[in-house]
Specification:
Blueprint lengths: L2 H8 L3 H18 L3 H16 L4 H7 L10 H13 L3 H9 L1
């Protein structure tokens, strides 16, 4: 990854990162996934949108779990989004349709 690509991803807004989780929740809901999982992704997305600190900066500092609703699994997904610009779990669900 070039320095420019890295800086672009790390400059993603909290809303940009949260959008991946809203899309993931919608795709899981359409698939009939358990409600608690769908709601967990939506709660985390909302918390990211409301977080005054940068999600990317928190990820770099190892402090993502200070955001309500962000645990190990969501932390890993955020890292994937910030480093690759993609979310494999979402890609897989979209590909199924």
């Amino acid at each position: 990854m070039t320095e420019t690509e890295e800086s672009v991803r790390l400059q993603m807004s909290n809303s940009d990162v949260a959008a991946y989780f809203y899309k993931l929740a919608d795709a899981l809901e359409a698939k009939g996934e358990l409600r608690f999982k769908v709601n967990a992704y939506r709660r985390a997305a909302k918390a990211m949108e409301q977080e005054p600190r940068s999600v990317a900066a928190l990820w770099q500092a190892g402090e993502l779990r200070s955001i309500s609703g962000v645990g190990e699994a969501i932390e890993k997904k955020i890292g994937e989004i910030l480093t690759s610009g993609r979310l494999r779990a979402l890609d897989a669900l979209v590909k199924e349709d």
